Amino acid sequence: MISPYIANMKLKAGTIIKSTQALEATVFEDAIILVTELNDDGAVGFMLNKPFSRNLNELEEYQHLPPFPLYSGGPVDQEHVFFIHQRPDLVEGGEPVANGLFIGGSFKQVIEGISSRSISTKDIKIFIGYCGWDTGELQAEIDEGSWTVVEDEGFVFDLFT
User: Fold this and answer.
1) What's this model's pTM, rounded to 2 decimal places?
2) Strand 42-47 vs strand 124-134: parallel, antiparallel, or unpaired?
3) Which residue among 33, 132, 135, 158 sits deepest, i.e. has the most Cβ atoms within 10 Å of its Cβ?
4) What does the pLDDT look like over 30-56, one tens digit per residue?
Protein backbone atom coordinates (compact mmCIF):
# COMPACT_ATOMS: atom_id res chain seq x y z
CA MET A 1 0.00 0.00 0.00
CA ILE A 2 1.31 3.45 -0.84
CA SER A 3 0.77 5.88 1.98
CA PRO A 4 -0.28 9.44 1.41
CA TYR A 5 2.31 12.12 2.11
CA ILE A 6 4.46 11.11 5.08
CA ALA A 7 6.27 13.98 6.78
CA ASN A 8 9.33 13.43 8.92
CA MET A 9 9.43 9.70 8.28
CA LYS A 10 12.63 7.98 9.39
CA LEU A 11 14.15 6.80 6.12
CA LYS A 12 16.35 3.73 6.04
CA ALA A 13 17.93 1.36 3.54
CA GLY A 14 15.18 -0.77 2.06
CA THR A 15 12.65 2.06 1.91
CA ILE A 16 10.74 2.22 -1.36
CA ILE A 17 9.49 5.56 -2.63
CA LYS A 18 7.18 6.46 -5.50
CA SER A 19 7.17 9.77 -7.32
CA THR A 20 4.14 12.04 -7.13
CA GLN A 21 2.64 14.39 -9.71
CA ALA A 22 5.16 16.98 -8.55
CA LEU A 23 7.79 15.10 -10.59
CA GLU A 24 5.81 14.82 -13.84
CA ALA A 25 7.82 15.65 -16.96
CA THR A 26 11.08 14.78 -15.20
CA VAL A 27 13.30 11.69 -15.33
CA PHE A 28 11.49 10.60 -12.15
CA GLU A 29 7.95 10.65 -13.59
CA ASP A 30 6.16 7.48 -12.38
CA ALA A 31 9.41 6.25 -10.78
CA ILE A 32 9.52 3.64 -8.05
CA ILE A 33 12.86 3.77 -6.24
CA LEU A 34 14.49 1.42 -3.77
CA VAL A 35 16.72 3.31 -1.34
CA THR A 36 19.77 1.09 -0.86
CA GLU A 37 21.97 3.35 1.25
CA LEU A 38 21.28 6.15 3.67
CA ASN A 39 23.99 7.71 5.79
CA ASP A 40 25.46 11.06 6.87
CA ASP A 41 26.57 11.74 3.28
CA GLY A 42 23.11 11.31 1.77
CA ALA A 43 21.12 8.58 0.04
CA VAL A 44 21.51 6.21 -2.92
CA GLY A 45 18.76 4.33 -4.71
CA PHE A 46 17.69 2.70 -7.96
CA MET A 47 14.61 3.13 -10.13
CA LEU A 48 13.02 -0.32 -10.18
CA ASN A 49 10.51 0.20 -12.96
CA LYS A 50 12.35 1.95 -15.80
CA PRO A 51 13.64 -0.48 -18.44
CA PHE A 52 16.87 0.53 -20.14
CA SER A 53 16.83 0.78 -23.95
CA ARG A 54 19.03 -2.31 -24.36
CA ASN A 55 19.40 -5.73 -22.74
CA LEU A 56 22.61 -6.86 -21.06
CA ASN A 57 23.38 -9.23 -23.95
CA GLU A 58 23.23 -6.27 -26.36
CA LEU A 59 26.33 -4.78 -24.73
CA GLU A 60 29.42 -5.97 -26.60
CA GLU A 61 31.13 -7.51 -23.59
CA TYR A 62 28.07 -9.64 -22.72
CA GLN A 63 26.76 -10.62 -26.15
CA HIS A 64 27.41 -14.30 -25.35
CA LEU A 65 24.66 -14.23 -22.69
CA PRO A 66 20.99 -15.07 -23.14
CA PRO A 67 18.70 -12.01 -23.23
CA PHE A 68 18.58 -10.33 -19.83
CA PRO A 69 16.94 -6.98 -19.09
CA LEU A 70 18.73 -3.88 -17.87
CA TYR A 71 17.06 -1.04 -16.00
CA SER A 72 17.78 2.65 -15.90
CA GLY A 73 18.75 2.99 -12.24
CA GLY A 74 18.91 6.75 -12.34
CA PRO A 75 20.55 9.77 -13.88
CA VAL A 76 23.86 9.51 -11.97
CA ASP A 77 26.90 7.55 -13.27
CA GLN A 78 25.28 6.01 -16.33
CA GLU A 79 28.65 4.61 -17.38
CA HIS A 80 28.53 1.81 -14.81
CA VAL A 81 26.46 -1.27 -14.04
CA PHE A 82 24.98 -1.83 -10.57
CA PHE A 83 22.78 -4.64 -9.29
CA ILE A 84 20.53 -5.76 -6.46
CA HIS A 85 19.73 -9.39 -5.79
CA GLN A 86 18.27 -11.89 -3.40
CA ARG A 87 20.74 -14.72 -4.05
CA PRO A 88 23.68 -14.43 -1.63
CA ASP A 89 24.07 -18.19 -2.06
CA LEU A 90 25.13 -17.61 -5.70
CA VAL A 91 26.61 -14.10 -5.54
CA GLU A 92 29.34 -13.52 -2.96
CA GLY A 93 30.31 -10.17 -1.51
CA GLY A 94 26.97 -8.38 -1.65
CA GLU A 95 26.07 -5.86 1.04
CA PRO A 96 22.75 -6.42 2.85
CA VAL A 97 20.13 -3.75 2.19
CA ALA A 98 17.02 -5.08 3.96
CA ASN A 99 14.69 -8.08 4.02
CA GLY A 100 17.01 -10.54 2.24
CA LEU A 101 17.95 -8.05 -0.46
CA PHE A 102 21.60 -7.34 -1.30
CA ILE A 103 23.44 -4.79 -3.39
CA GLY A 104 26.50 -5.66 -5.42
CA GLY A 105 28.87 -8.53 -5.02
CA SER A 106 30.71 -10.61 -7.59
CA PHE A 107 29.52 -9.53 -11.02
CA LYS A 108 31.53 -12.43 -12.46
CA GLN A 109 29.26 -14.80 -10.50
CA VAL A 110 26.21 -12.90 -11.76
CA ILE A 111 27.36 -13.38 -15.36
CA GLU A 112 28.07 -17.07 -14.73
CA GLY A 113 24.61 -17.45 -13.14
CA ILE A 114 22.86 -15.74 -16.05
CA SER A 115 24.84 -17.84 -18.54
CA SER A 116 23.94 -21.10 -16.77
CA ARG A 117 20.40 -19.84 -16.13
CA SER A 118 20.77 -20.43 -12.38
CA ILE A 119 20.09 -16.70 -11.89
CA SER A 120 16.93 -15.27 -13.39
CA THR A 121 15.00 -12.01 -13.45
CA LYS A 122 13.27 -13.25 -10.29
CA ASP A 123 16.61 -13.09 -8.48
CA ILE A 124 18.36 -9.96 -9.70
CA LYS A 125 17.91 -6.53 -11.25
CA ILE A 126 20.78 -4.92 -13.13
CA PHE A 127 20.93 -1.15 -13.54
CA ILE A 128 22.74 1.42 -15.61
CA GLY A 129 23.21 4.43 -13.31
CA TYR A 130 21.71 5.26 -9.93
CA CYS A 131 19.88 7.99 -8.02
CA GLY A 132 21.71 10.05 -5.43
CA TRP A 133 20.79 12.70 -2.90
CA ASP A 134 22.95 14.86 -0.66
CA THR A 135 22.48 14.88 3.11
CA GLY A 136 18.86 15.68 3.97
CA GLU A 137 17.86 16.20 0.34
CA LEU A 138 15.67 13.10 -0.03
CA GLN A 139 13.85 13.77 3.24
CA ALA A 140 13.25 17.36 2.09
CA GLU A 141 11.79 16.08 -1.18
CA ILE A 142 9.46 13.75 0.74
CA ASP A 143 8.45 16.58 3.06
CA GLU A 144 7.63 18.83 0.08
CA GLY A 145 5.45 16.10 -1.45
CA SER A 146 7.62 14.94 -4.38
CA TRP A 147 7.70 11.35 -3.10
CA THR A 148 5.40 9.01 -1.18
CA VAL A 149 6.69 6.05 0.77
CA VAL A 150 5.58 2.53 -0.14
CA GLU A 151 4.78 0.84 3.15
CA ASP A 152 5.08 -2.77 1.91
CA GLU A 153 8.83 -3.36 1.65
CA GLY A 154 8.22 -6.83 0.15
CA PHE A 155 6.95 -4.96 -2.92
CA VAL A 156 10.46 -4.87 -4.38
CA PHE A 157 10.34 -8.61 -5.08
CA ASP A 158 7.18 -8.18 -7.17
CA LEU A 159 9.16 -5.89 -9.45
CA PHE A 160 11.81 -8.52 -10.24
CA THR A 161 9.66 -10.25 -12.87
Assistant:
1) 0.87
2) antiparallel
3) 33
4) 999 999 999 989 999 999 999 999 999
